[in-house]
Amino acid sequence: MDLLQEKLTLPNGSTLSNRIAKSAMSENLSNRLHEPTPVLINAYKKWAQSGAGLLITGNVMIDSKAIGEPRNVVVENRKNLDLLTEWAATANGTNTQLWAQVNHPGRQAMEQINSVLKAPSAVPLKTGGRKDATSKIPEALTEEEILAIIEAFGNTALILKEAGFSGVQIHGAHGYLVSQFLSPDANTREDKWGGSLENRSRFVVEVYRKIRALVGNDFPIGIKLNSADFQKGGFSEEESMEVVKILSKEGIDLIEISGGTYEAPAMLGKRKASTVKREAYFMDYIEKARKITDTPLMLTGGFRTASVMRNAVASNQLDVVGIARPFTVYPNIGHELFDNSRSVFPTNTQKTGVKGIDGFMNIIWYEAQIKRLGQEKAPDPGLSAWSVFLKYVWLILERKFSRIF
Ligand SMILES: Cc1cc2nc3c(=O)[nH]c(=O)nc-3n(C[C@H](O)[C@H](O)[C@H](O)COP(=O)(O)O)c2cc1C
Hints:
By secondary structure, this protein is of the alpha/beta class. It has a single domain, classed as Aldolase class I (TIM Barrel, Alpha-Beta Barrel). It is built from 14 helices and 12 strands. The protein has helices at about 40-45, 80-90, 145-165, 175-180, 195-200, 200-215, 235-250, 275-280, 285-290, 305-315, 325-330, 335-340, 355-375, 385-400, and strands spanning about 10, 15, 20, 55-60, 95-105, 120, 140, 165-170, 220-225, 255-260, 295-300, 320-325. The protein has an 8-stranded parallel barrel, surrounded by 5 helices. It has a two-stranded antiparallel sheet with strand order 1-2. The longest helix has 21 residues, at about 145-165. It is globular, with a radius of gyration of 19 Å. About 50% of the residues are buried. Flavin mononucleotide binds near residues 23, 267, 268, 301 and 323.
């Protein structure tokens, strides 16, 4: 029996049909009102046929006043329940669970398209990260606002459950709000939401508890968590392990491990030579995490070779292989892995040659491939980086100057 095709039962009793998961990728494919579009829904129709046991959507924003990208889907009320139901239904009749990732960007919201940035503390992003969000100093959240955001996470998760998604994942990684609370660098609060790790992890625990209280025990809830922020003074590996223990005890169903923030984007491949050799980025971490929890673990970042994926599962150090960028250019990746028709899934981002722009290419070039998938076009490995960039700038300008909000 191929280990990648083995079922996995989650703590809540629900079952993933195999060990291949599409990790979250912001699709940037909503319409101007941040509603799901036919192209977005069609991309999921394709991925629902990919063979993967689990698909996790790109981050769905919980608040229209805090948006990561110009065309993120926002779910803050039931006005688009029909469209969300159509999106969730793409996985009906398949062996694939479709989870929605819920996110609040905090200070990592795109500055050009949000009038205020809110964060645990008034600490701005440092240079080297998303240039569009580096300069503005965020406003520190009040206690009342923190409680409202926790409510909003719950509200969004409940609406997504009603729409028919089979689970939700809290985005607790990559420097967004949950991860900002966890970081001693971004979170300098002196109240019960900052300081000790117990205080810094209060936000994620309360978000989890709120969602659990609303969706019930049978509904899968996962988290994407940083193995570390890879920044001086940031959330460390030791602290991350403690959070794994805390969330396991709370009863979370799946912990996906990634790492880095948009100040130090380790999740997209900035890594040590030793890790390059192992292909998957956070393998050292997952080996240690396996020893401290029985909660199913998913590892995402760098997996490109079937044998590496198989060995990772065979070694029993992780339960689910998380894959992101290859899903955009090999949309049948699950089947290709299972029937051995392809054994490597390389991804080669096109570049403009301008350093300040090319950091973004690791995201927006793949978003353009997702759009092609939704438009019934074949993946285009030679897709021009400049055309992708200029179209993206247009989306930002359009969102910035629209009078919709
Ligand atoms: C286009 C794109 C959008 C992404 N958006 C998200 C996101 O919304 N949420 C998230 O947790 N990670 C996001 N990521 C990170 C991926 O989930 C993943 O961690 C990263 O790409 C490394 O995995 P890979 O080497 O298999 O691509 C995104 C990555 C890409 C390429």
